Amino acid sequence: MRRNMPDFRAKASADQARLGQAGALDLLDAGRAWDLAPALRAGGSVIFPHASLEACGHQIAAAVHAGLDSGAARVLVLGVLHAQTPELAEARERVAHGGAVAQEPTWGIQGPGLAGRADWRAEFSLANFRFLWEQETQRRGSAGPELVIRYPYLVEGRPDRLPGIGELQEIARDAAVLVTTDPFHHGIGYGEPPETALAPEQGGLELARRQIATGLDLLRGGDYAGYHQHCVAARSDGRDVGPVLRYLLGPVDGRILDLIADDMAAMYQQPAPTWVAGALIELQPVEPR
User: Fold this and answer.
1) What's the chain look like in SS3?
2) Fewest CB atoms within 10 A around its CB: which of 100, 136, 256, 278?
3) How far apart are CA 135 and CA 22, in angstroms?
4) How far is residue 187's CA from residue 59's CA, in Å, rounded to a whole number?
5) Nearest partner of 263 among 209, 203, 201, judged by Cα
6) Contacts with 182 (C-beta within 8 Å, 6 or more apart), sequence order
7) What are phi and psi of 4, to 5 degrees?
8) Structural contact between residues 265 and 189, judged by C-beta atoms closer than 8 angstroms
9) Can you tell me the distance from the alpha carbon of 151 to that of 77, in angstroms, rounded to the nearest whole number?
């Protein structure tokens, strides 16, 4: 999304250290405002953000509780693999301009325990989730269910062709499924002209809500190509994880439970408004298992 992306992994580490155990448990308590485990038991999912802990830690905490309370022996978490390296970014650019995705070495699924590429090791999108997961399992005195983490890349509207998708289908058959996405980025730092950039409180969050709802509708209908185009327009980083989630679960109805704005002007060293929407979304299957 940005040619020179800030070091969000370092920020997450610093935020976690500053928060400490007591602050993490406060966020986890705040995440109890929602009980999302029933959605997972029914074969649905939860979408949670990966913006800063200060802004959306309570939303991430709600997803942690959902996974731990689901009763599943395994929890599959789909993370966003951002194009943070030249190789990842150039592959995305080539494919966007008509290049053959099957020729790209980065095409496929990465994650702990998998052979092959390890770009995921520098990824930040699940850093705060894993931090809160560890804090909560320690508090409960239990390791919790097995945590399986996967990062799809270059789905390009065809999750059925993605190398490794068969493994995810096998895992998802008896696992609770969670996914992280920051579904709307907006403002000057993201390339919006100053004359059309909206502050969150001046119509920006309303625009975000409409855009996110549009994306959820496209996923519900299985319109992968339309969803990919939507992600580009909304500056959503869900272009890979969204289609994979829909392919694994089938039709799902999405409901936005909580929506906040996280100011990113300082991170990008750009003028305000520059912000990302953090959304907690519950997904219920259209046809329950």
Assistant:
1) CCCCCCCHHHHHHHHHHHHHHHHHHHHHHHHHHCCCHHHHHCCCEEEECCCCHHHHHHHHHHHHHHHHHCCCCEEEEECCCCCCCHHHHHHHHHHHCCCCHHHCCCCEEECCCCCCCCHHHHCCCCHHHHHHHHHHHHHHCCCCCEEEEEEEECCCCCHHHCCCHHHHHHHHCCEEEEEECCCEEEEHHHCCCCCCCCCHHHCHHHHHHHHHHHHHHHHHCCCHHHHHHHHHHHCCCCCCHHHHHHHHHCCEEEEEEEEEEEECHHHHCCCCCEEEEEEEEEEEECCCC
2) 100
3) 10
4) 23
5) 201
6) 49, 50, 51, 80, 236, 237, 238, 276, 277, 278
7) -115, 90
8) yes
9) 9
- Structural domains of the chain sorted by starting position, each given as residue range(s) with its CATH number in brackets: 8-199+218-285 (3.40.830)
Q: How does pLDDT run along the chain (289 residues), one tens digit per residue?
A: 444 689 999 999 999 999 999 999 999 999 999 999 999 999 999 999 999 999 999 999 999 999 999 999 999 999 999 999 999 999 999 999 999 999 999 999 999 999 999 999 999 999 999 999 999 999 999 999 999 999 999 999 999 999 999 999 999 999 999 999 999 999 999 999 999 999 999 999 999 999 999 999 999 999 999 999 999 999 999 999 999 999 999 999 999 999 999 999 999 999 999 999 999 999 999 986 6
Residues 263, 228 contacting (CB under 8 angstroms): no
pLDDT at 1: 40
User: SS3 sequence, 215-260?
Assistant: HHHHHHCCCHHHHHHHHHHHCCCCCCHHHHHHHHHCCEEEEEEEEE
CA distance 259 to 185: 13
Residue with token string 């907690």: 280
